[in-house]
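ok new one. same drill as before - structure tokens go in, u give me an amino acid for every spot. 362 of them this time. try not to just spam alanines like last time pls lmao
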């Protein structure tokens, strides 16, 4: 138990240090569409396991990122981020020896362009593609036979629409593997204070995720078991809303996220809901959160489980509000100059007309 806590704190600290180092060098990378790392505990479990801890020490490694610079310039220019995103997820269960079972590994290569609109809002697009698996070797529904072996494949032939997959899942060594790609769109409506820092933010994100067999779309490795994909489906649609504001100098976030997983087995729930509140007491990247989850699970092959869970823990923000040069101010200055030029032209025109009248009278 103590070794696990130490290990998770170590991983979580690495994700914090990865961004802290950039901040200390004034090179902080921002990712408007991102997954927050977290470590949490809570109540609510499936019928077969009791979760002690759940941790996702997400790290972004920037290859190129000028989003901070682009949003801080006076002119309206797009910013870009090219990166590698690592999303490990680890759970410890209340069993003999407190095992960590079937940890998830997700690696994504990503690209995000962002642009500031004339209304001071942010529009972001993201494309990410990579691999998602749990690193196991046995069949999803047998501990005895290897994945895709004839014996393991024969078990799939016994599965019908009435089969309860949760009851027969190999929870210790069952393989889960697929490649995936994601498309996401985010729009942030911002309200600024007198120092040009966003103090109220409405963020709306829509995403589409596709499981596919070839890595990066063309390399033949890391794909799915053909029998598995028929059970968990290839397509997922996601929607997220978050509201960010301040109370007595502390930043808080209220969010709702919905997932719709299409074409999965009838015994599974197609919907997942995450409702959360996050408090950043020092207005930094580190925060405390509480979250309510309902619907299907989000831990590799355990998507076939359906249960409610309440959790609390620590998290980290990859897109902290910061001072920018609002486009509205630029437009006001531009329009002011245009009005001044127009006024001067009118005065010159009136002066010429007056001179012409005086010459005519003479």
């Amino acid at each position: 138990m103590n070794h696990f806590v130490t290990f998770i704190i170590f991983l979580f600290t690495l994700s914090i240090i990865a961004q802290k180092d950039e901040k200390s060098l004034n090179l902080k990378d921002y990712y408007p569409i991102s997954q927050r790392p977290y470590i949490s505990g809570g109540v609510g479990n499936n019928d077969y396991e009791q979760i002690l801890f759940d941790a996702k020490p997400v790290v972004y490694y920037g290859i190129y990122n000028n989003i901070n610079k682009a949003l801080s310039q006076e002119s309206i220019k797009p910013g870009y981020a090219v990166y590698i995103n690592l999303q490990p997820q680890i759970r410890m269960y209340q069993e003999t020896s407190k095992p960590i079972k079937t940890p998830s590994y997700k690696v994504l290569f990503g690209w995000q362009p962002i642009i500031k609109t004339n209304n001071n809002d942010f529009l972001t697009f993201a494309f990410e593609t990579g691999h998602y698996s749990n690193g196991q070797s046995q069949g999803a529904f047998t501990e005895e036979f290897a994945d895709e072996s004839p014996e393991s494949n024969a078990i799939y032939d016994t599965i019908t629409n009435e089969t309860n997959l949760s009851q027969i899942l190999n929870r210790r060594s069952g393989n889960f593997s697929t490649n995936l790609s994601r498309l996401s769109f985010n729009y942030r409506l911002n309200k600024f204070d007198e120092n040009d820092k966003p103090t109220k933010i409405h963020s709306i994100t829509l995403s589409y995720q596709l499981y596919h067999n070839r890595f990066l779309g063309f390399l033949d490795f890391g794909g799915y078991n053909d029998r598995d994909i028929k059970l968990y489906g290839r397509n997922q649609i996601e929607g997220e809303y978050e509201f960010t504001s301040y109370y007595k100098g502390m930043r808080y976030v209220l969010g709702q996220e919905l997932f719709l997983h299409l074409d999965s087995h009838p015994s599974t729930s197609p919907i997942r809901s995450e409702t959360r509140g996050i408090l950043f007491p020092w207005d930094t990247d580190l925060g405390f959160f509480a979250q309510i989850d309902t619907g299907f699970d989000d831990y590799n092959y355990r998507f076939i489980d359906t249960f409610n869970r309440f959790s609390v823990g620590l998290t980290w923000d990859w897109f902290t509000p910061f001072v920018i040069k609002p486009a509205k101010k630029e437009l006001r200055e531009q329009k002011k100059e245009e009005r001044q030029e127009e006024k001067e032209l009118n005065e010159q025109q009136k002066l010429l007309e007056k001179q012409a009248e005086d010459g005519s009278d003479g």
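Residues 150 and 156 are 10 Å apart (CA to CA). and btw DSSP finds six helices and 14 strands in the chain.
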